[in-house]
């Protein structure tokens, strides 16, 4: 099923014309993984029943600016963050089950602090201290279902929801908040319910 999703995503990216998927593919991941210990992380995902929610090569992508910052293209989050990994993946899984995230590609997840700073990430970014994913959503035109979920259930999930000027969507379970292109709640496509 996930393989079919990846093929559909590739087709959607091509059909979108301008949308570009991330160059860090399975082949590049296999080369990197050969020199890095990923087994305990994979075992944790299996035990938590969230393995495969996001393809492993996407889940371990570091910042998109990894080349510019002379960093690794992939990174395993520290074990201290694994509870947050499980929580964020459970959220992604729920959004997928509800049909809110029909097609997505994770382009950035855990970032070590030096890479986060070089890539222009927030000083206290959830990418460095908890666990967050930045998503490409090809063909995504209607933010209302995601916004409605955040308004109705975001507090219970401790859900952070952001949208960057590039159009990427940020999800985490490190605090109930939202922001938009200028980094403030006022520029978010979602308003907190009154």
From TrEMBL:
Gene3D superfamilies, per the entry: 3.30.1380.10
Keywords: Signal
Domain of life of the organism encoding this protein: Bacteria
Peptidase M15A C-terminal domain mapped to chain residues: 96-171
Signal peptide (from-to): 1-21
Transmembrane intervals: none
Name of protein: Peptidase M15
Source lineage: Bacteria, Pseudomonadati, Pseudomonadota, Gammaproteobacteria, Pseudomonadales
């Amino acid at each position: 099923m996930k393989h079919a999703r990846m093929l559909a995503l590739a087709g959607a990216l091509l059909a979108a014309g301008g949308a570009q998927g991330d160059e860090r593919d399975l082949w590049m991941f296999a080369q990197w993984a050969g020199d890095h210990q990923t087994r305990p992380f994979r075992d944790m995902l299996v035990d938590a029943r969230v393995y495969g929610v996001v393809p492993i090569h996407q889940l371990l992508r570091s910042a998109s600016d990894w080349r510019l910052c002379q960093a690794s293209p992939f990174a395993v989050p520290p074990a201290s963050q694994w509870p947050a990994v499980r929580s964020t993946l459970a959220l992604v899984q729920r959004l997928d089950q509800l049909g809110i995230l029909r097609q997505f590609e994770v382009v950035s997840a855990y970032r070590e602090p030096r890479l986060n700073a070089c890539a222009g990430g927030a000083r206290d970014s959830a990418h460095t201290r908890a666990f967050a994913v930045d998503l490409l959503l090809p063909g995504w035109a209607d933010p209302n279902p995601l916004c409605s979920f955040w308004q109705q259930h975001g507090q219970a999930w401790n859900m952070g929801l952001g949208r960057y000027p590039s159009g990427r969507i940020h999800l985490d379970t490190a605090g109930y908040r939202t922001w938009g292109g200028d980094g403030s709640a006022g520029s978010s496509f979602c308003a907190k319910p009154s």
